[in-house]
């Protein structure tokens, strides 16, 4: 009788494993391990999701689906929890300015020339970013037209998915420079190492908000490195065409 129960349990475990495998394993049939059906799609046609640090007034937090300090996908609204392991592929800089209610009002996709502006900011399109008011520090006041450090990255738990961008600006610039320093110190390709992104809650003069905290975890496996190299080869030379799903998570002080 016990033997029959053991056999039944084993079969049940196999069924569960098969179900999990069918959910997790991506179905890819294109050449060179790429998904089929995207032959005519250029990188500029796709908006790269942002690996978002959710704040107190982020919509998914307001809706009760996450808490402040969680990490999420800005496009799919998937919530990853309090930490993720990721592989940065490379870094490129952009600039962005946000306003309450309006959201993103001005942007430079190469950190040199203004490429997008709405309403009164439309007049700056085509001008050097340095010519734009609010592009540099004013005493203790940080720039309104902020530099954004974008790291297209692979999430280790979903290594074969399209990259997301860890886009760091304003209070997160310190973390961006720390990540660059750790990656450069390794002496290896940027996509040769895995890092852990966590968050911590900070109470500042303007309110309470979540900021990133980054740690080196380990070197990549050969498979992870190969996937990172594949995306580097396909994305880096067209980095100025990459459009990140850029938004600013609202903090409670706003």
Explain this structure to me?
The chain has 254 residues and is an alpha+beta fold. It is 21% helix and 30% strand. It has 4 helices and 13 strands. It has helices at residues 2-24, 59-62, 173-185, 222-235, and strands spanning 47-48, 51-53, 71-73, 79-81, 83-88, 92-99, 103-108, 116-117, 146-155, 164-168, 193-204, 207-219, 243-244. Strands 5, 6, 7, 8, 9, 10, 11 and 12 form an 8-stranded antiparallel sheet that branches. The chain has a 3-stranded antiparallel sheet with strand order 2-3-4, with no helix packed on it. Strands 1-13 form a two-stranded parallel ribbon. β6 and β7 form a beta hairpin. The longest helix is centred in the first third of the chain and has 23 residues, at 2-24. The N and C termini lie far apart (65 Å).
Helical amount among residues, as a percent range? 10-25%
H/E element sequence: HEEHEEEEEEEEHEEHE
Number of H/I helices: 4
Outline type? globular
How much beta, percentage-wise?
25-35%
């Amino acid at each position: 009788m016990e033997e029959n129960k053991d056999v039944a349990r084993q079969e049940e475990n196999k069924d569960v494993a098969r179900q999990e495998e069918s959910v997790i394993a991506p179905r890819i049939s294109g050449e060179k391990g790429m998904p089929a059906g995207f032959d005519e799609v250029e990188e500029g046609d796709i908006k790269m999701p942002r690996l978002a640090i959710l704040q107190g007034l982020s919509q998914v937090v307001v809706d009760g689906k996450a808490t402040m300090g969680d990490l999420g996908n800005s496009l799919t609204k998937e919530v990853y929890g309090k930490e993720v392991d990721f592989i940065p592929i490379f870094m490129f800089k952009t600039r962005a300015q946000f306003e309450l209610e309006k959201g993103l009002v001005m942007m430079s996709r190469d950190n040199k020339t203004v490429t997008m502006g709405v309403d009164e900011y439309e007049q700056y399109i085509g001008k050097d970013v340095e010519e734009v008011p609010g592009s540099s520090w004013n005493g203790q006041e940080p720039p309104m037209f902020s530099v954004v450090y974008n790291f297209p990255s692979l999430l280790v738990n979903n290594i074969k998915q399209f990259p997301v961008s860890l886009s760091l600006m304003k209070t997160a610039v310190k973390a961006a420079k720390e990540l660059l320093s750790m990656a450069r110190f390794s002496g290896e390709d940027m996509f040769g190492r895995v890092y852990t992104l966590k968050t911590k809650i900070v109470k500042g003069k303007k309110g309470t908000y979540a900021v990133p905290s980054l740690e080196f975890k380990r070197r990549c496996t050969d498979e992870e490195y190969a996937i990172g190299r594949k995306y580097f080869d396909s994305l880096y030379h067209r980095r100025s065409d990459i459009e990140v799903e850029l938004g600013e998570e609202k903090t409670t002080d706003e």
